[in-house]
Specification:
6 domains, 43 strands, 5-stranded antiparallel β-sheet, 23% helix, alpha+beta, binds 2-acetamido-2-deoxy-beta-D-glucopyranose, Agglutinin, subunit A, 7-stranded mixed β-sheet, S-receptor-like serine/threonine-protein kinase protein
Amino acid sequence: MLSIVPLAICSSHASDSITSNQSLPGDQNLFSVGGNFELGFFTKNKASSKFYIGIWYKRVSELTPVWVANRATPVSDITKCLLHISPDGNLALLDQSINSLVWSTNATIPSNSSTVAVLQDNGNLVLRDPDNSSNIFWQSFDNPTHMWLPGCKISFNKITKVSRRIISWKNSEDPAPGLFSNSNLEDTQNVLQWNMSKIYWTSGPWNGLIFTKLPEMTSQYLFKLTFVNTSEESYFTFSLLDNTTTPYAAYVMDVSGQMKALLWLEVNRQWTQIFAAPAQCDVTKFCGPFGICNELRESCLCVKGFSQRSPKDWALSDHSLGCVRDIQLQYCDGTGSDYVGERDKFFQMSSVRLPDDGQSLQVGSDDECMQACLYNCSCTAYSYNGTGCTVWYGDLYNLQDQYEGSGGGTLYLRLAASELPNHHKKGSVSGLVAGLVAASLVCFGIVCTLVTIRIRRRRAFKLVMGPLVAFRYSDLQRVTKNFSDKLGAGSFGSVSKGVLPDSTAIAVKKLEGLRQGEKQFRTEVSTLGTIQHVNLVRFCGFCAEGKERLLVFDYMPNGSLDSRLFRGNDNVLDWSTRYRIALGIARGLEYLHEKCRECIIHCDIKPENILLDAEFNPKVADFGLAKLLGREFSHVLTSMRGTIGYLAPEWITGLAITPKADVYSFGMMLLEIISGKRNTEQLAESGESDDYYFPAVAAVNVREDTVQCLLDDRLQGNANMDELIIACRVACWCIQGLESQRPTMGLVVRMLEGLTEVSIPPIPSIFRALDIDAEN
Ligand SMILES: *[C@@H]1O[C@H](CO)[C@@H](O)[C@H](O)[C@H]1NC(C)=O
Ligand SMILES: *[C@@H]1O[C@H](CO)[C@@H](O)[C@H](O)[C@H]1NC(C)=O
Ligand SMILES: *[C@@H]1O[C@H](CO)[C@@H](O)[C@H](O)[C@H]1NC(C)=O
Ligand SMILES: *[C@@H]1O[C@H](CO)[C@@H](O)[C@H](O)[C@H]1NC(C)=O
Ligand SMILES: *[C@@H]1O[C@H](CO)[C@@H](O)[C@H](O)[C@H]1NC(C)=O
Ligand SMILES: *[C@@H]1O[C@H](CO)[C@@H](O)[C@H](O)[C@H]1NC(C)=O
């Protein structure tokens, strides 16, 4: 036994290639020369005995396959498997236990040529002529599976009209081809498709620099996307602008049906998602039949009266089989024409996104619409919107709950009568007894509640810790009506409005994803309690009970800056208010950075986190969360869509975060205060001919002193020009790529106050790297 171990080490050849007279036994791996990649057998589920040949990052601690050879044909006993160059020159995987070919590169190789398979340090596995490295017969970059690595091409072949495709895994453990794929259309758009057919997302056309609908995919400081168009093919490829700090990045066609850009951050030892499209609930049929998608939780549930068809698949993030009825419908008989059983009922689902394959019927009322559905045995749901009736037949797909957008409404779902609570059975003695018992329990319950409320009222709202109140969970639950009046929701948790018994309005934030102990939480929170400034939201209390962690703030009647800045043409904020808001935010941040006992970096400055009081004074909210959440914070933050546009480059590159990261975000937000639009949105909105990324355009115009064109159109030029010039210059100083070039918040305040001259800033390096011209 002992002698086997050293023997195995001796025979393991730490090689990067397989030649025709060698073979790679199942228990040995290839290593690329620079040590970035490894090829061998892997499994994502040790108990399954399903093994795959794959390539993964050698230096990444979390096993992350970037390519899989036999993705649909796993083998069970790797000791009986052999990867070798077969007599025809192809690289092939042989299962000797059943003596069969499991997988082959299947390339056309001129007879009698000898071949070698080499794992390159960029993750590409190449089958080529041993004497001529340009004579390539096959390579994994031309046959990608689910990932798109730097250097790999997503191409469209103009002669065969076929696009290279990357296809999601079937589920989080099974690399077999799933339902979602990414490919290119002829007209240079990148698209996502369900089951190789239905397109559910497009990138918008390429404009030479970026995808029109997708600025954040390309205008980041990380990736440089290139489009190449020849007479035979067109393709996209990407490289990392700087691969020294963060060498590993890839786009992946995820099992969620989203295209994601991932970056390995060694500091956190985890993959950070820097981009994902589309929104989870916009992925076609993601939740399967009768599943309903929730965007906030990015997850699926079954609609009422239904259960998961395959809980095993759901647990592995494959919801495609959806949900099945718990109780069969009884009204229709098998022939679908006669009505036999108890009349089916309809369950009301409000604020849902309606499936798009409904059929409109010409009927005049809600009741007629219901009848039309009821008397058609294949009708599963209806919706009546006051003017029109829509009915659905068969399976329902693409439902989304808590949906307020277009195509939403109230859906009435057909269920067996016994599913619905107001179902009365004919009276029986046992039913009566049960009813009486239930009724008396309810009465008893009410008495109990009254008693507890009376007792609790006496003790509530009294536990004061320093300047802060330690609230009871049940009290917060009550004053917020069980958190029903939602003011907003983000990745750190939702905020609800509440009213204290003394009629003070409060905002209660329920933190999610916090694994901090109660004692540590209290310590951190009490430090936050000492921070007070006219431009910071006043923090008045907290709650830490069991797993619950809540923070309580003053309620701000004018909501958040984004709601005032970006929406509609009524009550547009005038220039002097905007300037006052910018200055107030700067002062609040200066206080956090420079005037507190301990410097606090906000880390998530964006319009959603600026609240406005009754006089439109800005108050910075959510400060201190970075400290409270610790390492969780950066993960949550960087995996958030939307926020990415405000994040300083050092967040992504993994350098230490300093207060200058807030300065960067402030600069991005200041540009939005000037233009009244989201930096990212403007790009999508502007016409095809003159697409531009607003911050880049602003940087150019600031240099040429033509800043009037940057002002929000809705202000019709009504702004103090001196202030506009200052604001634009300050913003561009703040978004410089190099931290050392950005001003401190203190300097920003003095510049906005007009106490310090502001010179003309250089064009930020990220835009220079992207080669933006001075047009527009
Ligand atoms: C190998 O390629 C040929 C055509 O080049 C194709 O007909 C055949 O199905 C392929 N075999 C496998 C196992 O992929
Ligand atoms: C292939 O090689 C064999 C021996 O090495 C030789 O006899 C045969 O003629 C060659 N065939 C071709 C097509 O070159
Ligand atoms: C190597 O292969 C390439 C591609 O097949 C070919 O163009 C080139 O002439 C070959 N070079 C030599 C030295 O044979
Ligand atoms: C995908 O499409 C194929 C034919 O194009 C069809 O046979 C198959 O059932 C579809 N898959 C699903 C899950 O609908
Ligand atoms: C970094 O980029 C350079 C130049 O593009 C390349 O030669 C090198 O292999 C890359 N390093 C890694 C780890 O990808
Ligand atoms: C109501 O539904 C009908 C189709 O059933 C549609 O044509 C109409 O636009 C809808 N009206 C509103 C206000 O949504």
